[in-house]
Structure formats: structure tokens, C-alpha cells
Amino acid sequence: MQCLDSDNMTSYQPIQFVRSALYVAVLFLIIYSSSLTEFFMLAPKHLYSFDNFSAFGAAALAQANITGTITKVIDGDTVDILTPVDNEGRTERIRLVLVDAPEYMQSGFIEAKNLVMEMCLEKNALVDPDDNQGKSYGRIVGVLYCDGSNVNAEILDKDLASISGSFCSVSEFGNSDWAKRNG
Fold first, then answer.
1. Residues near 134 by Cβ (< 8 Å), separated by ≥ 6?
2. Would the pTM of this model clear 0.85, i.e. be above it?
3. pLDDT-derived band of residue 171, with 50, 70 and 90 as boundaries?
4. What is the Cα–Cα distance from 96 to 142, expressed in whole angstroms?
5. Measured between alpha carbons, how far apart are the two ends of the chain, in Å?
6. What is the domain-level CATH number for residue 127?
7. How far apart are CA 120 and CA 8, in angstroms?
8. In a domain, 37, yes or no
9. Are strands 99-100 and 124-129 parallel, antiparallel or unpaired?
10. How far apart are CA 64 and CA 131, in angstroms?
């Protein structure tokens, strides 16, 4: 490495500026990465294209399935899952993709919540996150399977919830049999 003398110091200053700018840009991306996810969810598709992703690129974006035990049923479309210790042993809130169940004090709330409780509470569960959607209000959006049964399909098939039709074109599950059957 060559030492800098006073004549070379002026050529070194732009490099320091560029390096500092890069550090700030990386820090900005880290802090606002969730906003980038929201951008891709809300921006019109003509602003970006994923058609040229390689299999490696697509696999890198895919979210891993989550396994654990359902510890709490909030309502007909939201549950808490406790992951095993080897998956960091944390509780994640799950939002059933494409399902719009009645909210508290709405007609059908108790029936929808009771079905999910019967199917899932204190049982083994698997969540297949929707790779096309990020978190929604801090909740992972996905399909919930309890003891092998698709809870999203069951609650819709029993008319205890309706399908969120506006998300069918966004969700990776929008073309699934259960979504088409109920949409």
C-alpha cells in the first residue's frame, strides 16, 4: 500500500465520501427493509418484474415453513404458535391468508373462533407462509395446518368466514382449489 503525501490527499477525499455514502445507504436499507417489502406488495407490477429471477433467487425469497404448537386463538383468522426451542422457541402471530373471519362482537365471531380452537388449540401445527406477502401488522400471513388439516379451507368451507378476494391476485395461494372453491 502506498502512503499518501499531501499531494495525494485531494484524490483520497472522494473515496472517503463514497465509502461513507455506501455505509449510510446500507444502514438505510437495513432500517427500512420492511418498507421495501411493503413497496413490492403495493407498487404496480409494471414497476418491477420477477420474471428473470433464477431458481436460486426465487428460493432465497421463499419463507421457510413454521412448525409448533398453537397456544392461543385470537379469532377465526389469527392464532399464536409457539415454535420449538431449536427454532428459537418464540411465539409468532399467524394471520390466515385469504380468510376474513368475523371480528369480536360481530355475528359469527364465536362460531369461527370455536372452530379454530377445536381444530388447533394445544395441537401441533404447520404454517406455510405466503411467499408473496410480508408481515401484516406484525403477523405472518400463511396457510395453517393443524394435525394435517387445512384450517384456511375448513373455516371457509363451513361458511364461518369469507374469502379476502382482493388478495387472491397477490397471494401465492390465490389459485389453490380451496381459494377458488370459496372465491
1. 34, 37, 38, 41, 141
2. no
3. very high
4. 5
5. 66
6. 2.40.50.90
7. 69
8. no
9. unpaired
10. 9
C-alpha cell at 98: 385469504
Taking CA atoms, 132 is separated from 24, 38, 87, 158, in Å, by 28, 11, 23, 26
CA atoms within 13 A on the CB side of 101: 29
pLDDT, one tens digit per residue, over 119-146 is 999 999 999 999 999 888 899 999 999 9
Q: Are 112 and 80 in contact (CB under 8 A)?
A: no
Distance CA 68, CA 97 (A): 18
Domain count, the chain: 1
**Which amino acid would we find at residue 6?**
S
CB count, 10 Å around CB of 45?
10
CB 102 within 8 A of CB 108: yes
